[in-house]
């Protein structure tokens, strides 16, 4: 109360965006991260990332080379300026309608996207190396998936255990023998990268089923251009806006019908899905139709058609945001109302392309992940450019023993979950939690993998009107059709609670714009 | 354009027109009740009949008045509030196609109606109803002015025109029915009834401009059936339907049903109409309009159309 009174006394404006009652669309709520009415101070003297690697500030307290201009600009802004820009960013997000959904929130359908105005910078040379590593990885993964659904040479040559395939929930027998375009199954991959205390970048996991977040990456850049326009002319920041065009070109390259104008659609489960904003956004930016399962029908000719006012329109490429097992009640989950009966039949006949191909999930598995560096050697005859985080498989009895002994120092995750659920972060757990978790793992060891805790790198983040270090990861997106493309940078996700390493938006994480500075 | 989306846009438009017509009817009728002498014995069952809710009301729980059944009843899928619910749901799920301003206005109209219609049920008056009519005009204007007049907009016009033609025919029908039923009592009030009919269609001022005679039943009927220019006349609505259809792909499928509607309206000899033949004519017209709706649905909107 007192602070407010003094604010008014000195003539500061209370910005509109703070007053929730005046927000026009009452369905969109601001998250807790909303700037208060007070200004944001930067106190570099007391900015302490601990033993984490900070992406902006070096160990000597000076900005890293790629962050030079940014730090200079931040330093030149008054606390009020900083506050104004954070508020302007939040307002732009609400007005543009950039939202996402959190499942546990009951009634609330839309939440405003949580965004922090301080971008995360990356050095361009380092990035080019990372990019090469990401392309290499996806190429190897695609070789693997194609091999798994054909001759399984990697298994016959003893380089990959048969038991892992046999116990994999995501190996789909209905996909055996299929031949997607260019022999590429995973057309879109979201690979999570983390940087450890010594600055080394590791791959945390490859998300190959329906990876999301790219629309937020695009919107973060768009908002940042509004908030810090002056920085874009003073240095070369690689643009990310090409993504929808690159995505569209990749999808077109998958079309079964030769010609210039293939019909590309985005298949969504519908408005109640948490990533619906992204489905709609990408469809709009690509100029593709946004369809639901019921809009499609498979004809007696095994071709896919869209129910349109023009009549039945042939569909060539489907960018599917529905999990493979819900795609076709003829073949998979019989009760699924989301899919299209006969779609797999059409896909196997080569009459429609689906990105990502059904069956791709076999490689989206934390146990399979362990073998990726070896896949690079086996299929490409190259050394991996990017390293995996050292990972222990609980399916192996020796590793299981080690994991159970050292639970306090490890992060233990289920092989098949996403969203950060069902895992244990050893150093942050209680004795009771560890005891219970040990039983869970012993009951189903194949389902668990463990990794040493990576102290994720940090980036200055607006917290309680100050800039404080918060842990981040990075999700670039890699496209593969007839060629490969990697988004410069990607989506930086930030854990908003001090010390927390859980960055997922579904559990209250935030995000930042990512700059590859050349 | 997806059939599913076209269907929602079409129904959003139909429901909004339904809301506007019903609200206008309520406004006019509230004022009419003040004008008529007591012996005339009109009550809210009349508008209920016009809106086709008579049977529904008979079968509903008896703790509701006719007025509240018409305005807000959850037991009535065609009550103003129910119709607004559907309109809003259709607008919400077509936000990619329909201008966002239209969605916001529909959403706010729904809130306004939910808050204010219950009081109208208890104390009839025209203020809330007129406000609703005004906001519907706003939405029509937003769509006309900011939505591209492509296929999606043609479905807006189709939905609105079919609903309008239907509504005009109902009003004519019920007016004729009253005349038959109350011939002697109402002779003195003949022009009052027809004046009310015109007001219920916002037609009074235009009628006076174009038909410079006393208000006579036949003249009103001719005006409402045949005038090409007045937006709520049936002929005008039919012309709009024709024009909208001509802008859609594969419109040949509707040619026969359209022709049927045209002939029905064109061939009727209004001078020879007695109140009972008028009633028969309206029945035929409503059937033909229903058939046309069915053909439109099958040609473009049916989301479950099978593959060949």
Shape of chain A: globular
Briefly note the structural class of the backbone of chain B. mainly alpha
Low-confidence stretches of chain A: 1-35
Helical run tally of chain A: 14
Q: Report strand % of chain B.
A: under 5%
- Can you write the helix and strand succession of chain B as a string? HHHHHHHHHHHHHHH
* Main sheet summary of chain B: none
Q: Give the overall shape of chain B, derived from the CA principal axes.
A: globular
Question: What oligomeric state is this?
Answer: heterodimer
Q: What is the end-to-end distance of chain A?
A: 46 Å
Which stretches of chain B of 5+ consecutive residues score pLDDT under 50?
Answer: none
Count of extended strands of chain A: 24
How confident is the prediction overall: mean pLDDT of chain A?
A: 87
Binned, the helix content of chain B reads over 70%
Q: Hey, which two chains have the biggest interface?
A: A-B, 23 and 21 residues
User: How far apart lie the N and C ends of chain B?
Assistant: 19 Å
Strand content of chain A: 15-25%
Number of domains of chain B: 1
Lateral strand order in the biggest sheet of chain A: 4-24-23-20-19
- Total strands of chain B: the figure is 0
Mean pLDDT of chain B: 87
Concise overview:
The complex is a heterodimer of chains A (518) and B (308). With 518 residues, chain A is an alpha/beta fold.
Provide an overview of this structure.
The complex is a heterodimer of chains A (518) and B (308). Chain A is of the alpha/beta class and 518 residues long. Chain A has 14 helices and 24 strands. A 5-stranded mixed β-sheet of chain A has the order 4-24-23-20-19. Chain B has 308 residues and is mainly alpha-helical. Helix content of chain B is 72%, strand content 0%. In chain B, helix 8 (151-181) runs antiparallel to helix 13 (234-246). Chains A and B meet through strand 8 and strand 10 of A and helix 1 of B.
């Amino acid at each position: 109360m007192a602070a407010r009174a003094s604010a008014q006394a000195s003539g500061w404006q209370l910005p509109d965006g703070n007053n929730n009652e005046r927000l026009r669309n009452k369905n969109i709520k601001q998250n807790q991260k909303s700037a208060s009415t007070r200004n944001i101070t930067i106190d570099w003297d007391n900015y302490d990332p601990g033993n984490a690697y900070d992406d902006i500030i070096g160990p000597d307290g000076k900005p890293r080379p790629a962050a030079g201009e940014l730090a200079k600009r931040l330093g030149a802004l008054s606390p009020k300026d900083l506050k104004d820009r954070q508020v302007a960013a939040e307002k732009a997000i609400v007005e543009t309608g950039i939202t996402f959904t959190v499942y546990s929130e009951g009634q609330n359908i839309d939440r405003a996207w949580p965004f922090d105005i301080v971008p995360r910078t990356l050095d361009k040379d380092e990035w080019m190396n990372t990019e090469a590593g990401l392309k290499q990885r996806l190429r190897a993964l695609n070789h693997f998936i194609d091999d798994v659904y054909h001759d399984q040479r990697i298994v016959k040559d003893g380089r990959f255990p048969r038991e892992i395939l046999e116990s994999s929930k995501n190996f789909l027998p209905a996909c055996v023998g299929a031949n997607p375009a260019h022999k590429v199954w995973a057309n879109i991959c979201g690979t999570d990268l983390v940087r450890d205390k010594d600055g080394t970048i590791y791959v945390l996991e490859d998300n190959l089923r329906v990876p999301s977040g790219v629309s937020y990456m695009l919107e973060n850049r768009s908002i940042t251009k509004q908030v810090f326009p002056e920085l874009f002319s003073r240095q070369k920041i690689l643009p990310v806006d090409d993504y929808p065009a690159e995505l569209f070109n990749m999808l077109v390259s998958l079309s079964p019908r030769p010609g210039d104008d293939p019909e590309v659609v985005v298949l969504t489960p519908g408005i109640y899905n948490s990533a619906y904003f992204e489905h709609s956004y990408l469809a709009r930016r690509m100029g593709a139709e946004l369809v639901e399962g019921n809009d499609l029908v498979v004809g007696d000719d095994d071709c896919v058609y869209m129910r349109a006012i023009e009549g039945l329109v042939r569909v060539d490429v489907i960018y599917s945001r529905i999990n493979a097992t819900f795609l076709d009640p003829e073949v998979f989950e019989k009760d699924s109302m989301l899919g299209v009966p006969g779609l797999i039949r059409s896909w196997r006949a080569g009459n429609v392309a689906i990105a990502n191909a059904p069956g791709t999930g076999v490689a989206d598995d934390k146990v399979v992940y362990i073998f990726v560096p070896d896949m690079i050697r086996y299929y490409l005859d190259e050394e991996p450019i990017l390293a995996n985080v050292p990972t222990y498989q609980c399916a192996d009895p020796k590793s299981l023993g080690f994991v159970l002994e050292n639970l306090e120092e490890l992060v233990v995750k289920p092989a098949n979950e996403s969203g950060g659920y069902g895992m244990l972060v050893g150093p942050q757990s209680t004795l009771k939690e560890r005891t219970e978790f040990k039983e869970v793992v012993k009951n189903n060891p194949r389902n668990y993998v463990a990794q040493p805790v990576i102290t994720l790198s940090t980036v200055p983040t607006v917290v309680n009107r100050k800039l404080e270090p918060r842990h981040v990861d990075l999700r670039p997106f890699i496209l593969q059709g007839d060629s490969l493309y990697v988004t410069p940078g990607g989506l930086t996700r930030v854990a908003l609670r001090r010390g927390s390493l859980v960055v997922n938006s579904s559990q209250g994480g935030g995000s930042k714009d990512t700059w590859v500075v050349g | 354009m997806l059939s599913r989306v076209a269907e929602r846009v079409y129904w959003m438009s139909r429901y909004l027109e339904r809301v506007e017509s019903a609200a206008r009817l309520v406004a006019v009728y509230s004022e009419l009740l003040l004008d008529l002498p007591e012996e005339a014995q009109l009550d809210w069952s009349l508008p209920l009949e016009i809106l086709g809710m008579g049977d529904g009301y008979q079968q509903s729980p008896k703790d509701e008045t006719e007025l509240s059944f018409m305005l807000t009843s959850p037991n009535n899928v065609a009550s103003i509030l129910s119709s607004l619910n559907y309109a809003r749901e259709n607008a919400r799920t077509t936000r990619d196609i329909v201008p966002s301003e239209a969605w916001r206005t529909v959403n706010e109209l729904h809130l306004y109606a939910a808050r204010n219609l219950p009081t109208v049920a208890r104390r009839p008056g025209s203020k809330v109803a007129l406000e609703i009519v005004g906001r519907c005009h706003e939405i029509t204007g937003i769509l006309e002015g900011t939505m591209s007049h492509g296929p999606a907009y043609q479905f807006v016009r189709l939905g609105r025109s079919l609903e309008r033609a239907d509504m005009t025919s109902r009003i004519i029908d019920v007016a004729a029915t009253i005349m038959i039923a109350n011939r002697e009592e109402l002779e003195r009030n003949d022009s009052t009834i027809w004046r009310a009919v015109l007001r219920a269609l916002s037609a009074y001022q235009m009628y006076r401009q174009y038909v410079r005679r006393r208000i006579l039943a036949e003249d009103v009927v001719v005006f409402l059936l045949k005038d090409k220019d007045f937006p709520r006349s049936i002929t005008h609505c039919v012309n709009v339907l024709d024009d909208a259809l001509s802008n859609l792909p594969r419109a040949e499928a509707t040619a026969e049903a359209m022709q049927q509607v045209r002939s029905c309206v064109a061939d009727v000899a209004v001078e020879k109409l007695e109140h009972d033949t008028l009633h028969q004519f309206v029945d035929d017209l409503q059937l033909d309009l229903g058939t046309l709706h069915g053909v439109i649905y099958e040609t473009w909107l049916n989301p479950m159309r099978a593959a060949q």
